[in-house]
Design brief:
This is Fe2OG dioxygenase domain-containing protein. Pfam families: 2OG-FeII_Oxy, DIOX_N. InterPro entries: DIOX_N (IPR026992), IPNS-like_FE2OG_OXY (IPR044861), IPNS-like_sf (IPR027443), Oxoglu/Fe-dep_dioxygenase_dom (IPR005123). Keywords: Iron, Metal-binding, Oxidoreductase. This protein is α+β, with helices and mostly antiparallel strands. The protein has a single domain (about 5-100, about 130-355), classed as Jelly Rolls. It is built from eleven helices and eleven strands. The protein has helices at about 5-10, 30-50, 60-75, 80-90, 95-105, 110-115, 145-150, 155, 175-200, 285-290, 345-355, and strands at about 20-25, 50-55, 135-140, 215-225, 235-240, 245-250, 260, 265-270, 275-280, 300, 310-315. The strands form two sheets. The protein has a seven-stranded mixed beta sheet with strand order 1-2-9-6-11-4-3. Strands 5-10-7-8 form a four-stranded antiparallel beta sheet, with no helix packed on it. Helix 2 (about 30-50) links the parallel strand 1 (about 20-25) and strand 2 (about 50-55). Helix 2 (about 30-50) packs across helix 9 and helix 4 crosses helix 5 (about 95-105). It is globular, with a radius of gyration of 20 Å. It starts with a helix and ends with a helix. Residues about 90-130 and about 155-160 have low confidence and may be disordered. The structure holds 2-oxoglutaric acid and fe (ii) ion. Fe (ii) ion binds near residues 242 and 247. 2-oxoglutaric acid (AKG) binds near residues 242, 257, 300 and 312.
Length: about 350
């Protein structure tokens, strides 16, 4: 007999010492028994860990290696060339930039959830981050075909998916390589929503009307090597949880950097595993599920001695969707504990808490 979501959350064991691997081979299999088995694995990982690897995710190694090569080219450009594009972004593309800011940037320090998770003896030892050691290029939805992209109605009127991207002229091929991966990862993300719904005992289409124009923001990240004496106040990406529903993360093969915090306050390595991507849940899922699904704190430190690249894709819900606990995640013993806010207000609040404006 399957136990209820609330019971499963009550029995959760989040002292994990490794991140589970889920084989998505069954995703294309229409046999309901196969789908249910897959959803059960997803449910277990979401309730206990909040992170899992996926293999057989359908994105080719060629697409990924092209993305990596193009990132190397882009990030090796002179700083002035790179910041030129960033200025362009802030001046002309306020919408895209603001959306990116709202959804992904303002969360690395003083995170309320981190403090909650880290209360106990380790809290006092938490270093104050002096700054994150990484640079990033952020972009949102865009048709791969450049002529279609120019006339894409999604980019003209739509507040969430749209906002024109500014591509660096000095790195030809970057746009195409990154967008090719983007579209593969967006397709994977869309295929994940029904699995998450089934994992929550909901109808597979439950999230369809809540994710019609949701932002899917991708970030190409570059972490310089951190050499010299380790200073925990300056790390690649400081401890944080992601804001959105879930993140699909590609990590450069062969370089350990990502770490995930377990309930024992231990940092567990999440090394890149060949042929896999990482999926982790964000705060929107924690709100929706009354913390039955975990939005787990993580960080990245590049102590490898060489450059490191990674690519997260953040999937959110539409900004007007109220983040209201779903009934199967509430009980008399587990009342809804988050105030109901819209997804848009939630990210704005996080921004305010971090920057004070
Ligand atoms: O680079 C990584 O491995 C993690 C990136 C991350 O956590 C983020 O951008 O939210
Ligand atoms: Fe993250």
């Amino acid at each position: 007999m399957t136990i209820s979501l609330v019971q499963a959350a009550q029995n959760a064991d989040s002292m994990f010492s490794e991140i589970p691997i889920i084989d998505l081979q069954g995703l294309s299999n229409s046999d309901p028994a196969v789908q249910r088995a897959l959803a059960a694995e997803v449910r277990h990982a979401c309730i206990n860990v909040g992170f899992f690897y996926v293999k057989n995710h359908g994105i080719s190694e060629t697409t990924l290696s092209h993305a990596l090569d193009s990132m190397k080219t882009y990030f090796s450009l002179p700083t002035e060339t790179k910041t030129e594009a960033w200025h362009l972004l802030t001046r002309h593309m306020c919408k895209a930039w603001l959306i990116s800011l709202l959804s992904t940037t303002a969360r690395y320090q003083e995170d309320a959830q981190l403090q909650r998770l880290q209360r106990g003896p380790h809290q006092q030892q938490r270093p104050l981050n002096r700054g994150d050691m990484h640079e990033g290029f952020e972009f949102g939805w865009e048709e791969l075909n450049a002529s279609k992209a120019a006339n894409d109605p999604k980019r003209v009127n739509d507040g969430a998916m749209a906002g024109a991207n500014v591509w660096p002229a000095a790195a030809p091929g970057f746009r195409e390589a990154m967008l090719s991966y983007y579209h593969g990862a967006v397709a994977l993300g869309k295929a994940m929503f029904p699995l998450f719904a089934m994992a929550l005992d909901l109808s597979p289409d439950y999230f369809d009307d809540k994710t019609k124009t949701s932002a899917a923001i991708m970030r190409a990240l570059h972490y310089p090597p951190q050499t010299g004496p380790a200073d925990d106040r300056v790390i690649g990406i400081g401890a944080h949880s992601d804001y959105e529903c879930f993140t699909i993360l590609w990590q450069e093969p062969g370089i350990q950097a990502l770490q995930v915090l377990n309930a024992n306050n231990q940092w567990i390595d999440a090394p890149p595993i060949p042929g896999t991507l990482v999926i982790n849940l964000g705060d929107q899922f924690a709100h929706w599920t009354n913390d039955v699904f975990k939005s787990t704190v993580h960080r990245a430190i590049n102590r490898s001695g060489v450059e490191r690249y990674s690519i997260p894709l953040f999937f959110g819900t539409d900004y007007d969707v109220p983040l209201e606990a779903i009934p199967s995640c509430i009980s008399a013993d587990r009342p809804a504990h988050y105030e109901v806010v819209t997804a848009g207000d939630y990210v704005k609040e996080k921004l305010k808490a971090t920057y004070g404006h």
